[in-house]
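From the pipeline queue, job 12 of 40. The input is one protein chain; the requested action is below.

Action: predict structure.
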Amino acid sequence: MMSNVWIRLVRVGRVVMFGTLLACAPGLLAVGAAQAADKVLTVGIEQEPSGFDAVKGRVLGEAPASVMLTMVDRLMSYDANGKLVGELAESMTESEDGLSYTFKLRKGVKFHDGSDFTADDVVAHYNRVLNPASKYVGLLFIAPIKEAVKVDDYTVRLNLRHRWLPMRDGLSAFSLCCFIPSAKAVAADTMNRHPIGTGPYRFKEWRGGDKVVVERNPNYWNKDAKIHFDQIVFKLLPDQQTRFAALQSGEIDVTWTDRGHSIVQAKSDPKLMVHSRNGEGGGILFLNNSKPPLDDVRVRRALSMVWNQKYYVESQLQNTQLVTKTGFNDEGKCDSGYLGDGKFAAAKKLIGEIGKPIELELMHTATQRGREYGLLWQQLAKRAGITIKLKPMDQLAFVGTVFKNEYQMAGWRIADAGDIGPQLFALLHSKSPYNLAHYKNEEMDKLVLAMRQAATPEARKAAMCAVVRKMNQDAPILWASGRTHNAIAKKTLKGLRPLYQGIVDVRFAWFE
């Protein structure tokens, strides 16, 4: 018989209950008839992982995070109903002053190599990524965390520099800082290419440019969870049309997509099911402030004015994505300062003031989505007298090129999260290594600090609005579109988790 445990948050003497969950099954149990775990699930992914070590892997996109999730657990997560539940932690207690969080860890959890999971692994991981010498690119996302302290073998305390409202959301995110690896694997420098975690599947094979294969973990700590597949194959298929054709032919079973045509077509296919979820964040475009002529705010504003999200969403995405001016649900209360929506005359006037031709290079992924996006930018910019040259690039090379600051214009994303503030801080603060647009502004530094240290949800939302308004006016980063996550699967595939942050979570899925 399964027992119940409580995940709770204690604050100022008040206990807020997040709901019951099955012991060792924190909101992750698959439902339905049990099947023998003798099948292989094939997931079509667009992007190959750059690695699974937090420092060396640098960034997880939607596809690599879907792979990582099968192998490595986090302390906390959100269940299908949006409730905070535990994975490796059984409980989380906040101190009265909000400056520390204490986690009681599960006992009896084993890593894939048979070693015990303890507080040492959590402390080693967090203190490593928090150490500036490690040069973890996502440090600014979690910088309010000062340190991790071992209380005992199964208790960890995270101390904060100041009260930080997004703390809970941050620990459940699908970013490299949140997955707890084996400290032994990290020390041996094998985590990046041969990850060792505590998840329901363990690493088996990685063929570069082809696939990553994981196999069922027979010693998974959650004995009540139903693991229905012997193997999951993550097949690299960068081109969306190729992935969709592979799904139709039965070569793959499920894939993430943002291609409107495929989504609309799949909705009318009786053999397929579209899984969707509206989120926050969105597609963005970096305008490199360190590269002329984008060091001139007039050029950046002109580009912002010519971009037309609504047209892009309707014409290319077929209304399968949202339009956003803030990246978060502001309930219509935020004066966003948004400049876009095809203001061609105003944009042309700004370019005229500069008095010389403006030529730019837009780097985009070598995918159908990237090509269509680039061509639209060319057409819209031309109406303001701006010439844009397109540069297609493989996705892995794309990421590296942006980090090396060898671009002028490049697409990116702000991930869907319960609070996008940590990402805004990292992208916009002048001293952040993740400030990939190389935007330096003292006023913005003050605004993002005020946002980070806000003491109440209301104050934080107001501060976030001020940050976005300044960003929209100075235009170091443009909103390409809002965020709706879509995955297409065979109709017989059941048990997919909601598409939090766009992650296709197949850990406890099964075929009906």
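Job complete. The longest strand covers residues 14-22.
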